[in-house]
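Thread title: Can someone regenerate the structure for this chain?

I was given the following input by a collaborator and told the matching C-alpha cells would be attached. They weren't. Posting the sequence so someone can regenerate them.
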Amino acid sequence: MLDRRHEPRATSTFKSAYVRTQSGLFYVTLRNVSDSGVCLDAYPGAAEGDEIQYCFDSAGPRTGVVKWVKDGRFGVSAEADSLANGSPQIFPPRSVRLPLSFSAHLFVNGRQEAVTISNLSIRGACISSSYEFRAGQLVSLKIADRCFELATIRWARQGCAGVRFAEPMHPGEFRNLVERLQQPTVHSHPHASPAQLPALSGMAT
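Best answer:
Regenerated them for you:
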C-alpha cells in the first residue's frame, strides 16, 4: 500500500486574499493550504517564476514564487512555519484588508469631507481625515463612482476611523472596484492620483 504520510496535506478552503505583483494589487480567493504552500485563483498574467506577495489572514503578507499555473489557479511554495497560523480552522472572521491609498469623499451631518483611505475590504474601509468622527455616526462614503450609503463609523481615534458598509460588496464587484482604483483615469477626487501601493519589497498592511 502506498504510504502518503510524507506527501503534502492540502486543506480545502474558500477565503478572501490579495496578491501583489510588480503590476498591481489583485483580490483573489484562497483555495487550499498544504504543508508546502497554497493554491489561489490566478491573477491576470500569472506566470511561473513570478515573485509575489500574498495575504489571507492577520499574520500579514507572505512572499513566495509562483510554481505552477493551471485552469485559472496558481500555486505558491512556502515554508511550513510561515503557514503555521494559516490553518482555515483559525482564520480570523474579519475580511482581508487591501492596503491601497487613495482619496475619497465622505458625507456626514450634511457636509462633505475629503478623506484618505488606507485600506479597503468588502465590508468597509479605514479612513483618515481632519474631521472629528464619533463611533456610531451614519455616513455615506463615495469611492470612485460607487457610493456606500448608511455606512457606520465603528471606531475613531487620532485622525483615523473605521467605516463599515451597510452591506458587504459582492466579491466580483469588489474585484472590479480594486482594479478601477488602480487605473490612472479613475479617481474619487479631481486632483487625486490612482490608488498607490507600497513598494513590493517593503509591503506593510
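Confidence is low (pLDDT under 50) at residues 1-7, 86-93, 188-193, 197-205.
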